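Lab manual, section 2.4: Encoding a predicted structure.

Procedure: take the sequence of the chain (264 residues), apply the prediction step described in section 2.3, and record the output as structure tokens. A sample record is shown.
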Amino acid sequence: MRVVSLHPDVLVATSAVWQTTCTIVRGPVDGTNASSDRAAEAFVIDSPVLQSELDVLPTLLAQSGFPFTGLLATHADWDHVLGRLAFGAEAPLGVSETTAARLTAEPGSAARRLREFDQQWYVSRPAPLALGQVQALPVPGHLDVGDRTIELHPTGGHTADGMAVWIPWAKVLVVGDHLSPVELPMLSEGGSRSAYAATLERLRPLVEQADHVVPGHGEVLDGTRALAILREDVAYLADWTLPIARRDPEQLKIHAANQARVGA
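Recorded output:
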């Protein structure tokens, strides 16, 4: 797992599996920064995949001065909701109202998909995934982190649920499974071509303000590159124009599945 600092209050850890990203945001108290001795709060957004990566997250936060407060997940896909395997089954988990509804409608789905992955790749876990109760957050909305506030913006199209997280003081945008430099827009079950395109347009003004954009899969992007990927994704959804950098065999499988889902 690779960890980079985007700002004194923002870290990004990237899993060895699918380049899945996990963003950690700290809200200082009284506008203080990383050198403060005063208490702050920190949220962990999404999760790495391997258990060895999850195991080091608490130590990473402690050594970096990020006091753990709770978990956030951009959407309900299993590879983004593994934080409780790092911080315990009672760790608070906040999700959008649409994600909470999806988790209720699909009980046990994330745990089942994780178990299938672990069996295929011989991954050992100390305990099964138990999501239990989650806190449904109003989206669009805001969430206080220390004395700062992050913004929650609705997303959809990849799946039927989701949210993006805008960290305004750091100019960091966490977009879940959108704007990936390594993966085409993927229309999963519950996803929609039109909803995905609408999400990109909602994200556009935030991307234009961002210094860094964190996709759910792939390296962190600067604002200019993220805008270029956004334009490519808009074109792809409009007429299936494949981006030059995303035409490998795995992406062609995703492309075929997308077309089959919408009947193209």
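Check your result against the sample. The longest helix spans residues 193-209.
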